[in-house]
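Working notes for the structural subgroup meeting. M.R. asked for a predicted model of this chain before we commit to crystallization trials. I am recording the input and output together here so anyone reviewing the notebook later can reproduce the run.

Input as submitted:
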Amino acid sequence: MIRYLSILLLIILSEVSFASSIDIYEDKRNILTSGQVLDIFNQGKTKKLSSESFNPGFTQSVYWLIIKSGPENFNHKLIIGNAHINKLEFYISERNNPQLKYLTGDHFPFKQRPVINHLFIFPLEAGDQSVYLIKIDKRAESLQLNAQILSSEQLFQKSTKENLIAGILWGIIILVIVFVCFMYITVREKLYLYYLLYLLIASLWIAADKGYGYRFLWSEYPDFASRARPVFNAAWNILIIQLMQSFINQSRKSHFYKPLHIAKITSFILALCFLLLPTAFHSFSYWFLGGLLLLGAITVILISLSLAEQIFMRNRAAWFYTISIFMLIVFSVAELIIHSGQSNYELYYLSNFGIQTGLVIEIIVLNFGLAHRFNSYKNDKESLLIEVNKKQNELTARIIETQETERRKIADQLHDDVGSMLSLAILQISTVIDKERSEDKSKINLEKSMKVLYTVSDTIRNMSHTLTPLAIEKYGFKNAIIDLVASINLTNTIHVEHVILGFENTENYTANFLNDMYRIIQELLNNMIKHSEASHCLIQLIEHDDALSLLIEDNGKGLKDTQFKIQNGVGLNNIKSRVDYFKGQIEFSEKIEGGTLINIEVPVYNPEIC
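Returned structure, recorded in token form:
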């Protein structure tokens, strides 16, 4: 991009002008005919253009250009360097008899132009004694002329330079538009939508200002050609405010929020006036354009005050936006001064490419601001996510602790209160059985009742152990696992071997962590017994310096027949949830010789959860 800007600078510095002898006459009341203007020219009452540039600014007059044909300009072309003249009448006078040759302008179809170009170009092909008369009508608007008589070669060189400048500016703008589209699709933030609309409206204004819009976009709508620039200018005014407010996150409490909102509404009303009012409104356009310029100046002041307010509040985004918009304001003011007639039109580059250049510089700087804003947004989002995860972990830990507390209470009540009462009932019934052995029927009934009580007592004891593994508190985590394996082996349905390394000292672990690891092992063994149809199982539990490693393998059916039940079981979902909570990993695989292998790795020295 720097290379393109360097090329652009060289082109600006190498701009060559081609001065020509052209007379001009002002018709303040628009009452003169071509014949009368020719008489005035023959009487020597017209003025010669001191240079190729003429800039009366906002005017209510009609101007005539008069060119005397001769060998020096034969087969040349007259270029009117303004793409927005409402009406041009081109006369050729031979023997003092002016005849209308071309009638064109923004109020006429584009195809009426003698040369298909975004500017007005007229061929000079008459004899030596001929005179060309060009009536230029742009009343109630700003008029700037850059009249040149150029040969075909000179015109080609001039067009090549202008097209290169326009191509560089357009290329930068299109690249930024593509980038902003990508950012909006990726981030889905309204700021990028406003930025995209801002660039599109700015591009339409440039197309309208350079005459490309009328040539390629609305060539069949001449009535819109004279309205396009003020309409897009008013829309641009709205979006530049909206973009600024979104970029710096301006609050409704700001002192300048309401004035800017009024400016947006006023701009919208002016855009509707330029767009919808009938052609008769043309006589009032002078006042509408003046109002639009005044509104633009007010908008610049309000935006500057808003940025100063945010800079005072240490809003870093406001600095980026201030720097980005500064060059746009400078170049725009320069072009507006030229168009208002307060400066010489020989400042050709500023008059033709001022706002476009300011816009390019603005979007280059603004993109740096957007990149910084995006990185800040990303960092803030990551920090917020880390904070949310931390709070979630704290909340989960409290929930687990509360569950353990409630389970312990229920287990204690089942074990101590209900269990004690059932044990007393069993003792009393057994005493009755011993005393009444003579009554066989009563004895049988009491023995059945006692068996039921034994069953209930065992069930309650198992429930209490399930709710809270009391063996961990009494004998330690390692012995509790060994006791669990022994109880399974007593069923004679499967033989479980165990290898436990470490866990001699568990003071560094919380009770919740040890209880959950116990339940993970317990649930995995239950799933294996229910679904795998294995006859042998191995548990390997190893305590490393930074992690706990658990490996369980069996010689059962394997994953093909049991995977669906395992993966959709409530028990295994609980296991996965516990492992995920402890930032661990769980992996299921099928052994080549048959059976299932389950590997779990859990970091054990996580201060947030362990």
